[in-house]
């Protein structure tokens, strides 16, 4: 009976640890959503964005570098360069240390998308522009080069912004 109780406690602590790891990723995702805003230039065009955020880590799962794929609009990439050092990457590193501690892979990618929702003042809403096929081709390119090697995809981060129709 004593051993069963210990096993139950250990099993419970793993699910608790897993829940904490998930919370760490959720905190990082929330930080990304708070700091990467929809660029005004894209907001006027009602242009959605779908890209990848590539995260390079060292063997200890410390974040070394983050960048956006070529499918991201240049204004969004410029904004990302300004805020990426302000993102709390410790949340992400700690999540990776728990969920991927035995992995030797050092490249992680996060699908990231921004969408805009127009709130109309009348009955009609402004149309939302579609994603261009050229952007899709660039989805897995970084600085003009295809993403290669082994990568691990992390959960998507999605940000939707509502704006009043003009």
Short description, anyone?
This is TonB-like protein. With 166 residues, this protein is α/β, with parallel strands linked by helices.
Description:
This protein has 166 residues and is an alpha/beta fold. It has one domain (2-164). 40% of the residues lie in helices and 25% in strands. It has helices spanning 2-35, 40-45, 74-83, 89-99, 133-137, and strands spanning 49-57, 63-68, 107-119, 141-142, 145-146, 152-153, 157-164. Strands 1, 2, 3, 6 and 7 form a 5-stranded mixed β-sheet that branches. Strands 4-5 form a two-stranded antiparallel ribbon. The longest helix is centred in the N-terminal third of the chain and has 34 residues, at 2-35. Keywords: Signal. This is TonB-like protein. Residues 1-17 form the signal peptide.
Which key features would you list for this structure?
166 residues, alpha/beta, five-stranded mixed β-sheet, two-stranded antiparallel ribbon, 5 helices, disordered N terminus, TonB-like protein, signal
């Amino acid at each position: 009976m004593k051993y069963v109780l210990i096993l139950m406690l250990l099993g419970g602590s793993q699910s608790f640890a897993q829940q904490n790891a998930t919370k760490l990723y959720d905190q990082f995702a929330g930080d990304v959503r708070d700091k990467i805003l929809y660029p005004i230039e894209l907001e006027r065009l009602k242009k959605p964005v779908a890209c990848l955020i590539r995260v390079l880590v060292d063997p200890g799962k410390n974040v070394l570098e983050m960048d956006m794929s070529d499918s991201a609009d240049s204004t969004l990439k410029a904004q990302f360069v300004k805020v990426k050092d302000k993102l709390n990457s410790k949340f992400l590193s700690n999540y990776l240390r728990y969920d991927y501690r035995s992995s030797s892979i050092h490249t992680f990618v996060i699908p990231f998308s921004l969408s805009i929702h127009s709130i109309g003042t009348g009955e009609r809403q402004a149309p939302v522009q579609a994603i261009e096929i050229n952007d899709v081709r660039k989805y897995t390119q970084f600085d003009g080069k295809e993403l290669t090697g082994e990568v691990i995809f992390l959960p998507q981060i999605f940000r939707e912004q509502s704006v009043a129709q003009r």
